[in-house]
């Protein structure tokens, strides 16, 4: 089994500041770093480090060839990443003294996917595989509605959240992943009730409040799972949600139950936020196993 991730690839420009800049304010940056990012790339790396076979479908500009090499070094299959004329997508990330972040994203090459490429990406998939995508590329509706082999499941990370993009996608997916802010915004279209969001399964990440998973198609009625967050000192929360999703989905793909998948994902994201950066801070599976042996609720 494998996971095909149709996802973004960004160059992250990270600026550490005391507080987020206010309108009209100029401030000095205390530290600068540049690295690989993008929700898609981060999730592919998390999937690979969690032990899954993951093939990334996406695009970079000529300035982003190093990003392909970096993904490959993390164990991601990069054969379906194209180099195009458009500049590689990039992000401007402010990280404040509390480890919280504020992000601006320029899509760039992430907006150059074509229907032919999408068709090629799903053509070799088989029962048991997962298809993953986010809102940082173009053609999200096309990805969701594409014909795919029987038994292929679809996971949609609805971020950045744009209601006009998200609502038409819901009928075509098996698992919806959002953070608590996005869940609240989406629930406003369904009577302000998360439980009424019409998807088979819903995963909501809630930061320091942990995560919840709702299985609407459980035999015998809806099942709700909750997972507390591990208590750690945050250094940088950039990529925490991507790490959580990667480990959660990898656990499902490997046949683990929901409770185990949530616990592994929570541990992985706890480790990740304890270090600076996004992709580079995503832990290996053995580190997650060691963490879980030392930390219990």
The count of strands amounts to: 13
Number of domains: 1
The CATH architecture name reads 3-Layer(aba) Sandwich
The best one-word shape is globular
Strand order of the biggest β-sheet: 5-4-1-8-9-10-11-12-13
Cα(first) to Cα(last) distance is 32 Å
Characterization of the model:
The model has no long low-confidence stretch (mean pLDDT 94). Helices cover 29% and strands 26% of the residues. Strands 5-4-1-8-9-10-11-12-13 form a nine-stranded mixed β-sheet, with helices on both faces. A four-stranded mixed β-sheet has the order 3-2-6-7. The protein has nine helices and 13 strands. It starts with a strand and ends with a helix.
Write the layout of secondary structure elements.
Layout: E1 3-6, E2 10-16, E3 31-37, H1 39-49, E4 54-61, H2 65-73, E5 77-84, E6 89-95, E7 101-106, H3 115-123, E8 130-134, H4 140-145, E9 153-157, H5 163-166, E10 175-179, H6 180-187, E11 201-205, E12 211-215, E13 223-227, H7 240-253, H8 258-273, H9 285-294
Parallel strand pairs: 1-4, 1-8, 2-6, 4-5, 8-9, 9-10, 10-11
Antiparallel strand pairs: 2-3, 6-7, 11-12, 12-13
Helix pairs in contact: 1-7, 7-8, 8-9
């Amino acid at each position: 089994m494998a996971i095909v991730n149709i996802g973004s690839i960004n160059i992250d420009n990270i600026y550490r500041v005391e507080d987020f800049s206010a309108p009209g304010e100029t401030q000095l940056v205390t530290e600068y770093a540049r690295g690989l990012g993008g929700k898609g790339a981060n999730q592919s790396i998390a999937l690979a480090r969690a032990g899954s076979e993951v093939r990334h479908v996406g695009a970079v500009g000529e300035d982003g060839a190093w990003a392909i090499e970096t993904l490959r070094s993390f164990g991601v299959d990069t054969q379906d990443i194209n180099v195009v004329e458009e500049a590689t997508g990039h992000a401007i990330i402010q990280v404040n003294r509390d480890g919280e972040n504020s992000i601006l994203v320029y899509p760039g090459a992430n907006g150059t996917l074509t229907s032919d490429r999408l068709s090629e990406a799903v053509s070799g998939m088989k029962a048991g595989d997962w298809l993953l995508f986010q809102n940082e590329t173009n053609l999200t509706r096309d990805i969701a509605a594409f014909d795919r082999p029987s038994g292929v499941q679809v996971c949609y990370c609805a971020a950045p959240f744009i209601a006009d993009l998200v609502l038409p996608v819901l009928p075509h997916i098996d698992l919806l992943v959002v953070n608590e802010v996005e869940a609240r915004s989406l629930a406003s279209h369904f009577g302000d009730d998360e439980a009424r969001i019409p998807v088979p399964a819903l995963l909501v990440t809630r930061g320091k409040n942990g995560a919840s998973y709702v299985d609407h198609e459980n035999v015998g009625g809806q099942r709700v799972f909750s997972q507390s967050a591990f208590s750690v000192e945050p250094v940088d929360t950039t990529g925490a949600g991507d790490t959580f999703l990667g480990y959660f989905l990898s656990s499902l793909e490997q046949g683990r139950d929901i409770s185990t998948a949530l616990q592994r994902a929570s541990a992985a994201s706890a480790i990740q936020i304890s270090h600076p950066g996004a992709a580079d801070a995503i832990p290996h599976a053995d580190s997650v196993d060691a963490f879980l042996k030392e930390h219990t609720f």
